[in-house]
Amino acid sequence: MEITWWGHATCTVEDSGVRLLTDPVFARRLAHLRRRRGAPPPARAAVADAVLVSHLHADHLHLPSLARLAAGTKLLVPKGAVRAVPGLRRLARLDVVEVEPGDTEKVGPVTVRVVPALHDGRRMPVGPRRSPALGFVVDGRARTYFAGDTGLFDTMAEETGPLDVALLPVGGWGPGLGHHHLDPARAAEALRRLAPASAVPVHYGTYWPIGMDAVRPHEFHSPGDEFVRKAAVSAPGVRVHLLAHGQSVRPEVRR
């Protein structure tokens, strides 16, 4: 079992011979954001058996990045995504499956279970149509939780069940985070509740608004290290893997 962090919320989870890709964003620039750390992922990052899209925001559902996927790749998107994001219809060569919390999908020997997230799942600023924000639990040799983008909510641990690995967002792409996000402190509290064997912090230190390099730079540079410090206090039994862009880890599996 191996996890590779490509930056932002984009990870490859390899388990039982299956490659799963989360929220792929491969661009150097995304609207008003530019990639400030780490080279764009190489071509092999787009190789996947299935792709998990947590919600419709453009830094998670990025159409040009999805267009790089091979024909036939299974693409799990929130229910209502095709209606809300018409550009998905141009990706007809992909196997697009709309899902909502409670659904399960088989990818080879691996089961992907869809769980809720606390986040605004709309495609902004295109209209009022709502789709749920999602998390995913990948159940193979390990049980891996990809939280997507979420705030802390009371039933998080109940929804996921026992975990080996948690991929948790700990920051964002600009100054200021609302309560529907996890900052390092809230992510550390989530880790305490989830109690996995290992964790990998994601969704920080990659994209930042153009022209705002000097605005609260600590919110770009420090969330990973801050999460490590806070997790050591809140969840001392969890091993936290702080990865560089493109770095891989084989985390501990309990079973």
Automatic annotation (TrEMBL):
It comes from the Bacteria. The keyword Zinc does not apply. Residues 7-203 form the Metallo-beta-lactamase domain. Keywords: Hydrolase. One of its GO terms (molecular function) is hydrolase activity. Pfam families: Lactamase_B_2. One of its GO terms (cellular component) is cytoplasm. PANTHER family: METALLO-BETA-LACTAMASE DOMAIN-CONTAINING PROTEIN, N-ACYL-PHOSPHATIDYLETHANOLAMINE-HYDROLYZING PHOSPHOLIPASE D. This is MBL fold metallo-hydrolase.
